[in-house]
Specification:
The structure is a single chain. This protein is of the alpha+beta class. It has 5 helices and 8 strands; from the N terminus they run E-E-H-E-E-H-H-E-E-H-E-E-H. The chain has helices at about 20-25, 45-55, 65-75, 90-95, 115-135, and strands at about 5-10, 15, 30-35, 40-45, 75-80, 85-90, 100-110, 110-115. The strands form 2 sheets. A 6-stranded antiparallel beta sheet has the order 1-7-8-4-3-5, with helices on both faces. A two-stranded antiparallel ribbon has the order 2-6. A hairpin with a 5-residue loop joins strand 3 and strand 4. The protein is globular. The relative contact order is 0.22.
């Protein structure tokens, strides 16, 4: 399970340090793809296989299903951490997530996300305003 929030910088060669706790969970290997809200999603290989099965089951006759699977799979790439715990962010994904230098990696249960720091700050400011409303609107949400 991925938890927490970590700040790391993208270096001049587009390498990003992955927090030790995240690396240990995935043995240094995972799939990175375009996420929702202009961040990157990173999945352990076993989670990716589950998602792949679910997306394969979507009907190819549905326009939205075709569009989403194309979007999701076309940018997916398998990455491995180097000895320093870094991964190389491909140019397509760097551009999609507007990654400059400062990045935030957040744990989100079965995946972690990679955000440009400024984008993450803006997202959290917008979300904080409606967090209580989200919680109230979720059915059967009990802490």
């Amino acid at each position: 399970m991925f938890l927490g929030e970590y700040d790391h910088n993208l270096d001049e060669k587009n390498r990003l340090i992955i927090p030790r706790k995240f690396r240990e969970t995935v043995n240094g290997e995972f799939i990175v793809t375009r996420g929702i809200d202009y961040c990157l999603f990173a999945f352990p290989l076993f989670e990716w296989e589950i998602i792949e099965r679910k997306l394969k089951a979507l009907p190819v006759t549905k326009k939205d299903a075709r569009a989403f699977t194309r979007f999701f799979f076309s940018s997916a790439t398998e990455v491995s951490c180097d000895k320093q715990g870094r991964i190389l962010i491909p140019p397509l994904l760097k551009e999609y997530a507007n990654l400059e230098k400062e990045c935030v990696l957040i744990g989100v249960s079965n995946r972690f996300e990679i955000w440009d720091k400024n984008c993450w700050v803006q997202y959290t400011l917008r979300s904080e305003e409606t967090f209580n409303e989200f919680a109230e609107d979720l059915l059967d949400f009990h802490l």
